[in-house]
Design brief:
about 290 residues, seven-stranded parallel beta sheet, two-stranded antiparallel sheet, globular, disordered C terminus
Length: about 290
C-alpha cells in the first residue's frame, strides 16, 4: 500500500466528496479495492448476496485521519432488476455515483466436460452479465452528471489465455474485456470504461488452493516478478483509472500479472533429461476471489 499511501497523501489520488461502488467489495480483492477508495476519501458502497455485519465491513482512515467504513447492500447482481435497484439505492443515499468497480466474480474448478448447463450459465451470468447490468444502471446515472463517471471492470488473465478447469470463467472474462471496449465507445465522452486483468492474487483462499506456503512459493517462482499479486496491486490500478490521471484513458485493459508466466520452453530446456514437467498454467480465479463472492 506504500505507493497508494504516497499518492493519496500528495493529493494525486484524492477522492474526497466522491462515491464509489465496489461489487463483491467486502472480501478478497474487492475488499482491498474498497479499502483503497476509503483511504482516498471516497464514500463506498459494497454489495453481495450474503449480508455482512457492520463491524466486518472494510474500514480505512483517509488523509485527514477520519475513519471511514463501507456501506453494504445485499443484492444478487445476476438479476438485472437487483443490479438496477442496487445502483438506485446508492444514488438515493449519496446523491451520485462517480466510480463503479465491477469486481464480483470467480469460479470453482470444474472440468468443462462435466460442467452442467446450469453451472455454466451461472458462471457466465456472474462474470459477464452481472457487470453489464451494473454498468448499464450506473451509466444511466453518470450520463446525467456534469462530470460523468468511470467504470472499471475486473477481468482476468484467464480471459487472455487458455483457462483449463475454469473454461466458462475464462470465456466470460474474455467477453468482459470485449464488453469494456465496446461500452467505452458507446458511452464516451461522459463515461470512461476500462478493465484490469488480474493474474494470481494472494487472498485468504490462495494458500489452501495452492497447497500451503510451500505450494504458493513454487507457484510464485513461475512469475517473473517472483510473487503473487496483492489486492493492493489491483486497487492501485483501480484508483488510477478512476482518477484525473486517466482522463484520456478509456477502452483499455491493464494487465497486472507480474510479467505473466515463465514460458514453458524455458523450463523444459532447464530440466534434467528424463525429469517430469511441472503442471501447466495455474488459474487465477480461486486465488483472486476464492470462488463466487458472497
Amino acid at each position: 500500500m506504500a505507493t497508494i499511501d504516497f499518492a493519496r497523501e500528495s493529493g494525486v489520488l484524492d477522492f474526497s466528496g466522491q462515491v464509489a461502488v465496489v461489487t463483491g467489495g467486502a472480501r478478497g480483492v474487492g475488499r482491498g479495492i474498497t479499502e483503497a477508495f476509503l483511504a482516498a476519501g471516497a464514500d463506498v458502497m459494497v454489495c453481495g448476496r450474503t449480508p455482512v455485519a457492520d463491524d466486518a465491513l472494510p474500514v480505512a482512515a483517509d488523509s485527514t485521519g477520519t475513519v471511514k467504513r463501507a456501506v453494504f447492500i445485499a443484492a444478487d447482481l445476476r438479476d438485472a432488476d437487483q443490479a438496477s435497484s442496487m445502483i438506485s439505492a446508492v444514488v438515493e443515499r449519496f446523491g451520485m455515483i462517480n466510480t463503479l468497480v465491477n469486481n464480483a466474480g470467480g469460479s470453482p474448478q470444474v472440468d468443462a466436460a462435466a460442467a452442467s448447463p446450469r453451472f455454466s450459465s451461472s458462471i457466465v451470468a456472474l462474470n459477464l452479465l452481472a457487470p453489464l447490468y451494473c454498468a448499464q444502471a450506473a451509466n444511466a446515472v453518470m450520463q446525467g452528471q456534469g462530470d460523468g463517471g468511470s467504470i472499471v471492470n475486473i477481468a482476468s488473465v484467464s480471459g487472455l489465455r487458455p483457462s483449463p478447469g475454469t473454461a466458462a470463467y475464462g470465456a466470460a472474462k474474455a467477453g468482459l474485456i470485449s464488453l469494456t471496449q465496446s461500452l467505452a465507445i458507446e458511452w464516451a465522452p461522459a463515461v470512461r470504461v476500462n478493465s484490469v486483468s488480474a493474474g494470481m492474487v494472494a487472498t485468504d483462499a490462495a494458500e489452501d488452493h495452492y497447497g500451503g506456503a510451500e505450494g504458493m512459493a513454487e507457484v510464485a517462482a513461475t512469475v517473473p516478478l517472483g510473487r503473487f499479486g496483492t489486492p493492493a496491486d489491483v486497487a492501485g490500478l483501480c484508483l488510477f483509472l478512476a482518477s484525473p490521471l486517466a482522463d484520456y484513458v478509456t477502452g483499455t485493459n491493464l494487465v497486472a500479472h507480474g510479467g505473466g508466466e515463465v514460458p514453458a520452453f524455458l523450463a523444459a530446456s532447464a530440466r534434467p533429461a528424463g525429469a517430469k514437467p511441472d503442471s501447466g498454467p495455474v488459474d487465477d480465479a480461486p486465488a483472486r476471489s476464492g470462488g463466487q463472492p458472497s
